[in-house]
Every structure is written in structure tokens, then in C-alpha cells.
Amino acid sequence: MVSKRGAFGLLAALLVILLGVALAIGTGRGERVDIAAPAPAAPEVVPAAQGEWVATWSAAPSGAEPGTRDGLPDQTIRNVVRTSVGGNGVRIELSNRYGSRPVTFTRVTVALSSALGGAAAHEGTMHRVTFGDGASVTVPAGGSVLSDAAPLELPHAADLLVSVYTPESSGPVTYHRMAQQPTYLARGDQTSRLSGSGFAHASDVWRYLTGVQVFTSQADGAVVVLGDSLTDGITSTPGANHRWTDFLAARLRGDAEAPHLAVLNQGISGNRLLRDGAPDRLFNGASGLARLRTDVLPQPGARSLVVQLGINDILLQPRATDARVIVHGLNRLAEEARAEGLRVLGGTLAPFGGHPGWTPELEQIRQQVNHQIRTAGIFDAVVDFDRALRDPAAPHRLLPGFDSSDGLHPNDHGFRAMAEAVDLAELVDHTAEAQAL
């Protein structure tokens, strides 16, 4: 029986061939804004027809940005994001999921950052992004839009600038609340500006941008990570790309025997498996169970899912005080993802004994959930974050060298340990691959 994802995959493959031919003969819709020497370290250009569209970066929208009731009129927003795999064509996704009115983008560009995530663009890499019949696009409240292909040669692990200009007032800005990466603002339409001058204001959020896709022959698909603040990486070094998913992407790129996968971070701080964010904490997002449909399954090229959720169901009010309820939710999530053709890995719940909310009773629930994750066959494979992060002398606590100081969130060293806990070979279904051969 062919899964829904498999049926869509056949259609997508036909579309990819047509798009690939368009890119190969230079008729992609991206318009070059300035022409100069190509950026250094760009990958070797391959015939586009050999590739496919794969998501290389993502961020889950987490709500409506406070203080933006009328949007950000007459301002250019320059988002900075780190890609996981490269290729020779780029598409972007813009979201108005939490807007109350349509938002119009009259000009959008993509470019490579010239210096470690700063606002300045590298000469020769600036491309205008179009949407069907023109450069302007209006996204309805609650909606999203995918751009046409821009012929940008995108390296692995590149800092990509995505600049959007909104001339008029709109509803609240859909954003990702804790980016650990600066996003820049400038007055007027500065989308094609190469220098960083004028982009004086920086904030730690991503605005409107929720996905970057790359046309590539250098990846076999993507692994999506559905998680909370530990996946969001809120205690990692700002601007350093030291979330555990960044370290995982580096491992996949650096290991010749590893599967060639992009890594998509769909973490939202405070996110729960079973409940949506409370009315006073809507920025914690919808439940993980709901986000499977909105934030995981639509990702092009998704082959596997890592679930890192459950600790906030124990820690935040109203609490899930029965481990069986959490385990049931994890099992449901895994079954629904597998039904769509994904391989599903489950992460054990990390220690939080140094956190003010910790109690022996909550620790018992955590241990019960972890026992089921390890032994009940809920997932196709287990990523034991608990074992990777705990202090052997006090297993309810993080190892001191991994603790960011709040007892709950790891530091950069802890995030690296989380990435190293992943068995890279388990990210793909080798049995299915062997049967296909």
C-alpha cells in the first residue's frame, strides 16, 4: 500500500524534473539584482535535472510578535539563517499564520552573508525572489506562500540572508520567538542593499520566514526534529549556531559513511506534546501532536523524525501527572508519523533536577516515561538524551559541565553531547533501502 507521502512523492518527482529543466536552461524566475564575482566556497554546479527539492532550513512559527499590531510597514526585514545542505536553486516559504490581516511583500531577495551572519551580503549572490506572476505577493491571514526558484548557488552550512519589504500596515507579524540569531530591520526598501549600513536594529527573532528549500543532488532527504526549548537551543551561544541540531548537521556533513540528510529544527521553547500553549503563553505554540501536520509532514524531502518532547508536560501547569498519558501521546505521534512514511526516533527526557520546579514526584514521572521510551518499542530507534546529559553521581541532574546554570537547559557542550547521542545510521530505514535495490 502506498502511503500519502509516497503518492505525493511521485507527483513531486514529475514536478522536480520540469523545474530542473527550467533551472538548467536558465529560465528560473529568480532575477539577479547585481552581478559580480561569485561567492567563495560555492559548491560545484551540477545539472539541475539530477536534483530534487529538499528543505535545508526551517523554523516553526510560534505566534504573533508583541508590539506589531499593524505589522512593520515601510521596513525591510533581513533574516539570517544557517543552511544544512547546499544546492543550486533556492525557494523560500513566508508565513502569515498568526496574522489577522493580509500582508503584502512587494520585494524579496536572497543572498549569502558576507561575514558570519552579519547583515552585509556577499557581492554577486543577491537575487530577487518572485512569486508566480511577479515580485509582489499578498499572503492572507493564516496562510503561507512558497516562492519561485531563485538560481542561487548555496553552499553547505552557509549564512543566508532573506530580506522582505512590507510597504503597508498589516496585522501582527508571524514570528519565531527565540532565534539565537539576529534579524535586522531597516527603513524603506533596502532588500537589494549589499552593505549592512542602514540595518541598525537587530533582534533575536525570525520574522515571516519559516522555510528555505534547496534544489540539490547533494542530499537524500531531511530529518525533522520536533522539540521544545532544548531543540530551540535557547541557551546556546547567540549567533554561533550551536543548537544540538546544528551539531547534528555538522556530523552528517563530516562523516562520509553517514546518510546525506538535511536537518530541520522545529523546536519551540515551552512546547508540549499534549497541550497547546496556555492563553498567557501562546508563544509556546500548538501541541506537538498538532504540529506534526503543520510543521513536520509538509517539509519537502522529510524521511525521518526525531521527537524531543514531554518534559514541559511534566513541568508546566496544568501538569501531566500520569506517565501513561505522556507515553500514549508519544505512541500516537509515532504511529501517525509512520503512517505518512517517516522513520521515527524518540528522545528520552533529559534531567532537570537543578531546576526550581523539580520535585521527587516529577522525577518519578520522568523516569517512568523514559523506561517506556527505551523498552516499549514506541519508536523505530531511541536517542538517549538522558544518558548523554545526566550526572552519573546524581542522575536526576545535568552533568555540571553541560548545565547552562538553570538546571534544565544545556550549554554548548551539552548540546554537542545531545548531537553525539544520535546514531546516524538509525536516521534512515536501511531495510526499506535494501528492498528498493
> Can you count the beta strands?
23
Shape verdict = globular
- As a whole number of angstroms, the C-alpha radius of gyration is 21 Å
What is the CATH-assigned architecture of the largest domain? 3-Layer(aba) Sandwich
Q: How would you state the average pLDDT, rounded?
A: 90
**Are there runs of 5+ residues with pLDDT below 50, and where?**
6-48
CATH fold-level name of the largest domain: Rossmann fold
**Helical segment count:** 10
Spatial strand order of the main sheet: 1-8-7-11-4-13-14
What would you call the structural class?
A: alpha+beta
- Domains (count): 2
Please indicate the percent range of residues in DSSP E strands (runs of 2 or more). 15-25%
CATH homologous superfamily placement of the largest domain: SGNH hydrolase
Largest sheet: 7 strands, antiparallel
Distance linking N and C termini: 18 Å
Residue share in helices? 10-25%
The first-level CATH class of the largest domain is given as Alpha Beta
